[in-house]
Amino acid sequence: MRLLNIVGARPQFIKHSVMQKQFQHYGIEEILVHTGQHCDDMMSSVFFETLQINPPHYHLKSVSLGAMLEALKKELADCDFDAVLVYGDTTSTLAGALYAKERKKLLVHIEAGLRSYDMQMPEEINRVLTDRIADFLFAPTEIALNNLKLEGFWGDRGKGCAYWGGDVMEDAFRFYSKSAICPDGLETSGDFVVCTMHRQSNVDDRQRLEFLLQGLGELQEQIVLPLHPRTLHKIQTFDLTIPTNCVMLPPQGYFEMLWLLQNAKAVITDSGGLQKEAFFAGKPCLVLRDCSEWMELVQKQASILLGNETLPQAYQRMLGLQVAPLDLYGGGKSVDRILSTLKANIR
To answer: Where is the signal peptide (predicted)?
Structure first.
């Protein structure tokens, strides 16, 4: 089986690293495309190096959906493959999905069925459209699988169907957890909270970003704040001040983020992936959003949504959470579950 794998963003590099390690065992020949969606060193190349991902066969150096599609058509015109595999809900995901259908190839979607029901989020649009045209839809949770069933997809019938795959991110967390390293130059005194924010809805609006930064400043906590390039740019553009209780860091590699998660008191984030990683690390999480595609974490009292509360109010509520070690995401066996299904159904 020749499998065209399309990645472009940090979470996809992490997921693909553990998938790639099992390709040979399942007789899969890999063709790897890096769209270039995340292209600076700390958001891209450092992940290929530290996670020992094979170099991409194609590096498109594209950021927009249109540019990705044009580059895929041009660079891969003579490339043959049996199926296209995409991860998650980024622009790279949708570009890969549309390219698969243009080439009349099978489409495999890892992390299918997630729904926040907020169509103002680009990620929601990407995941819904990708699911609509996918041939193999691997849901990471029972809630996601049920979403797909309600939308007309049914499992265990081969092409065009939904399956419970589990979450590849748990496989990665378990595999790499002992490789965690302290970020260079980090100086903390006692307990700390790790915080990330990068979503358009939080950082592109000056009033919203100022509200969140002021809220962090009102917490009686030391905040370790790895800043996404987008967030730093907006803080500078809006001439905002980072609170004095925040320790600002540049974007961190995966092993550094694992260390921060393992050693933090709690997590504050608007990242979908970090919500789960906080759970894997047994840490309570405050989600800086009104909704989440990972509602099982809210239901199981592992995380809470900010909603209309102030950040200090929500943070105090979050401190009351008790994160139980539940098996919600497949127990670290998702890669084998997914690849064995593909091997049985794609000839």
So the answer is: none
Dihedral sign (CA 26, 31, 35, 39): positive
Tokens 């092409």, located at residue? 159
Q: Determine which one of 57, 198, 228, 233 is catalytic.
A: 198
- Looking only at the bridges linking them, the beta strands covering 83-87 and 58-59 are unpaired
- H or E element in which residue 97 lies: helix 91-102
Tell me: the pLDDT tens digits for 223-262?
A: 999 999 999 999 999 999 999 999 999 999 999 999 999 9
- Kind and range of the H or E element at 248? strand 246-249
Provide the residue type at 215 as one letter: G
CB count, 10 Å around CB of 182? 12
Q: Is 198 a catalytic residue?
A: yes
Taking the whole predicted model, whether its pTM rises above 0.70 is answered as yes
Domains and CATH numbers, the chain: 2-167+330-345 (3.40.50.2000), 192-320 (3.40.50.2000)
Cα 153 versus chain centre, distance: 23
Number of residues that make up the chain: 347
